[in-house]
Every structure is written in C-alpha cells, then in structure tokens.
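RECORD TYPE: inverse folding
INPUT: structure tokens
STRUCTURE:
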C-alpha cells in the first residue's frame, strides 16, 4: 500500500514559492507607503489651514492698504517672495517662502528655473484653470536627522486660490 503525501522537496518548493510571493507583496506595499509619506508633505489639512490664515492676513494688511500691488506679484518673470509682507507670522508658522502665481499651466522653463526642484514638481501637479491666481506657501517642517546624523528641515507646501 502506497502512502500519498508531500515529500521534502515538494515542501521546500511550496515554502520557497510562498516566500517569494510574500516578499513581492511586502516590497510593493512598502513602496506605496513610502510614496504616501512623501506626498503627505503637500497640502495637508494643517498647512492648508495655515495657508488660509496667511491669505487672509495678506489681503487685510498688505494688499488693502496699497503697499503692494497684486499685478506686480503675479506677473513678474521671477517668482516674487511675499515673505516680508507677513513678517509678523513668519516665525510663528515657520514660513520659508510665499508666492502668488498666475497662469500656472503656461509657466515656461525660463520662469520655472527660478524655483526649487520640489516646488517645480508641486506647481506642475496643480490642477487649476489658466486664469486662476494661486497663493503658494512653503513651510519649514520639523527638523529630522538623516542617516549621517545631519539635521535636515523638511519642507511642506500648501496652496489656495486667491479669491
């Protein structure tokens, strides 16, 4: 009478196939998590709210009393940093830069070269109409340590329409 069952080689093969499948699943899952962590630095709820407050402050202080003209801010060839107009909250919210951008979809390479690389990626991902004016605020996030024990400040970006 013959007994039917797994032999040692068959068992090793099954374990190897399952291990490879689990490794592939874990690898793709880890890539998805890393991508989500990287994208989480843009347009988080906290920073959108901060940007709303900055927009409100800019409208009340700088633009209402005529000290700064919107036309100058949105139509220059170089990005105009509006940081000195909100100097009172610069340190409170850890603001790095503030920009007003118009015609985001038609920005040329010449205009984009004045921005940092991550800001260019963010601007290209914006889904806005051609005539929309966008307030983009770049924040300094919490300081983290990299593998070489250097302190690195993360960058967070949020934007709102200038309405």
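DESIGNED SEQUENCE:
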């Amino acid at each position: 009478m013959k007994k039917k069952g797994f032999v040692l080689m068959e068992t090793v093969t099954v374990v190897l196939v399952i291990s490879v499948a689990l490794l592939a699943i874990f690898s793709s899952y880890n890539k998805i998590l890393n991508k989500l962590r990287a994208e989480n630095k843009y347009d988080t709820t906290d920073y959108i709210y901060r940007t709303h407050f900055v927009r409100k402050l800019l409208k009340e202080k700088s633009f209402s009393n005529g000290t700064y003209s919107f036309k100058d801010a949105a139509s220059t060839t170089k990005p105009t940093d509006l940081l000195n107009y909100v100097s009172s909250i610069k340190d409170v919210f850890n603001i790095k830069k503030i920009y007003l951008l118009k015609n985001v979809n038609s920005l040329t390479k010449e205009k984009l070269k004045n921005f940092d690389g991550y800001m260019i990626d963010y601007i290209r991902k914006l889904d806005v109409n051609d005539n929309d004016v966008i307030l983009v605020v770049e924040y300094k996030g919490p300081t983290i340590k990299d593998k070489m024990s250097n302190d690195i400040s993360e960058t967070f970006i949020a934007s709102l329409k200038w309405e």
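NOTES: Helices lie at 8-39, 45-63, 70-75, 87-90, 109-112, 117-125.
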